Amino acid sequence: MAMDGGFKYLVLAPAAMHTAHREATKGWGDLDPAYTVMLPALLMRMTHNQIWISLSRYRTACRKNLIVDRSLDFEQVDRERSWDDQIILNGLVFYLAYATIPNLHLMPMWRTDGAIITILLHMGPVEFLYYWFHRALHHHFLYSRYHSHHHASIITKPITCKTTQWKWRIVYQKISKIKGTTC
């Protein structure tokens, strides 16, 4: 079930308030860039997605470069309105990890060996697990309960891949965190 309405962003309010309090009490000298940049990065990601959504819907409305000769219906728009839930979930995971993992603030901002390991992990086990998990979702039992919602969109948009249910998002979140927890 998707979080509905504009109040779903209040889930991130404690993290934003903690960031503001932390920076106000510690001052700019003890500024922790990784912690402070999390919320603006999420907002930039939402803005970036919204730009692509708007551009895609505009091009569909203008009937340019259509793959399927159908118009975008309101049912699909309503079904895909929860595209930002995954970004909110990522924000919660990042803030909780930063709050609970000791000495995370001591990690360097960039390590070349960590970037190489991340790329190799993504190309190897992460993509492998994504693929087979997605294949498993096409089994009748899982498809009828979880995955059919995703395939109900005939006119594919940039956010069509984000229209999933929470259980599926959490599994994908765990798979993608293989890279972060290893490096």
Automatic annotation (TrEMBL):
Ranges annotated as spanning the membrane: 87-108, 114-133
Source organism, top-level taxon: Eukaryota
UniProt xrefs under InterPro entries: Sterol_Desaturase_Related
UniProt keyword annotations, A-Z: Membrane, Transmembrane, Transmembrane helix
Protein name: Uncharacterized protein
Protein source organism: Oryza meyeriana var. granulata
